[in-house]
Amino acid sequence: MAVLKLHGNPLSTATQRVLACLYEKDVDFEFVDVDMKAGEHKSEKFLSLNPFGQVPAFEEGDLKLFESRATTQYIAQEYSDKGTQLLLPGSNKTMAVLQLWKEVEAHQFDPPATKLVYELRYKPFFGMTTDSAVVEENEAKLAKVLDVYEARLAESKYLACDHFTLADLHHLPTVQYLMGSSAKKLFDSRPHVSAWVADITARPSWTKIQDMVKQKF
Amino acid sequence: MAVIKVHGSPLSTATRRVLACLYEKEIDFQFVPVNMGTGEHKSDSFLALNPFGQVPAFEDGDLKLFESRAAANYVAHEYADKGTQLLIPGSSKEAAVLELWKEVEAHQFNSPSSKVVWELFFKPFLGMATDAAVVEENEAQLGKILDVYETRLTQSKYLASDNFTLADLYHLSNVQCLLATPAKKLFESRPHVDAWVKEITARPAWSKVLAMMKQ
């Protein structure tokens, strides 16, 4: 059986997204650390795994993938019998509802959330100055998105349905970083969102990743 | 049989993405225009279809969807037997390659191309001033992404495989807009990308979408 390899950096949100999926599915894998400080992600060797020069990259035998959300989708599908059920099997209609909330994470939540992680966590860590205008603009955008989430989570235990799926998992890395910043108020002030955040970040598979992250610091 | 409805605007790149898919699949649908000029996309009745207040919204009987790529993906799966095959049937591994190139469109191509489209295509149309710095920055980024596409398209006729799939279709809206601006030079200077652009924009289903815009 082919070995699963994940090339990445434990601090990278995209790498954490795939790690979360691998742990939820209880699948063995080899983690290959990519030294981003040394520019390894731009090396010829890494570019042959991901021509966009970004972590993570994934291998399983002949299959080479990149883009974290393509990788998690593959793992959730290929190993659907193992570990946590992260999909919404049944019909094309049920899968469409999962797809919808995955798209919402990618196109509504991720853009403002990622900008806030950059301003509020990444920049201070590297001794750069936070741009408060960018923070204000993106907190306002994220607040509107979270208002929709608040309404949704009043009707549904998790985003796509009544169980945890990829749609929730994809949020974990960025949510975790934001909960360690001033932006946490956006989550705390919305009761259903706040409960959902507490629930998903307490999952054992996610706790394993937090331990990996702490070791890096 | 349930009626398929698309609520949107023919000028919206996201609406066109769904329309392209429906025409490729040769599926009957009802187009419900949403008057964005009067703010109809922010009305209560539209927000009931898409709480983010953006076009398009999609219905197939009881199923209500939004996010153009979720709607297109659903149509491609539910109507897999009709019209053009837009997926890669087979194993999870083969399907994964399609997922990869769909993600590349969403997370690499979409952002810089949308910014250039906004500056060079929509702003002049709306009588607003183009921001040259934004154009320069995003054209540079788009250039790097298209370098990766150039290499890929020397190895593969279309992005995900040797057949036209959703991964190519998702690009049509922004590609078409860019062709109407000076940014088309980014395609013209890359022979395999240029051939691919010409090929996908010449598809009959896409011509039907463009014909809708002219109404």
Automatic annotation (TrEMBL), chain A:
One Pfam family of this chain: GST_N
Family under the similarity heading: Belongs to the GST superfamily. Phi family.
Reaction it catalyzes: RX + glutathione = an S-substituted glutathione + a halide anion + H(+)
Keyword terms of this UniProt record: Detoxification, Transferase
Organism whose genome encodes this protein: Hibiscus sabdariffa (roselle)
Domain (GST C-terminal): residue spans on this chain: 91-217
Main localization of the protein described in the UniProt heading: cytoplasm
Protein name: glutathione transferase
The keyword Transit peptide is annotated on this UniProt entry: no
Enzyme's top EC category: transferase
Keyword DNA-binding attributed: no
From TrEMBL, chain B:
Membrane-spanning intervals of the chain: none
UniProt xrefs under InterPro entries: Glutathione-S-Trfase_C-like, Glutathione-S-Trfase_C_sf, Glutathione_S-Trfase, Glutathione_S-Trfase_N, GST_C, GST_Phi_C, Thioredoxin-like_sf
Catalytic activity, reaction form: RX + glutathione = an S-substituted glutathione + a halide anion + H(+)
Domain (GST N-terminal) ranges: 2-83
Keywords: Detoxification, Transferase
Pfam families: GST_C, GST_N
Family of the protein in this entry: Belongs to the GST superfamily. Phi family.
Uppermost EC category: transferase
Segments forming domain GST C-terminal: 91-215
Identification of the protein by name: glutathione transferase
EC number(s) per entry: 2.5.1.18
Subcellular location: Cytoplasm, Cytosol
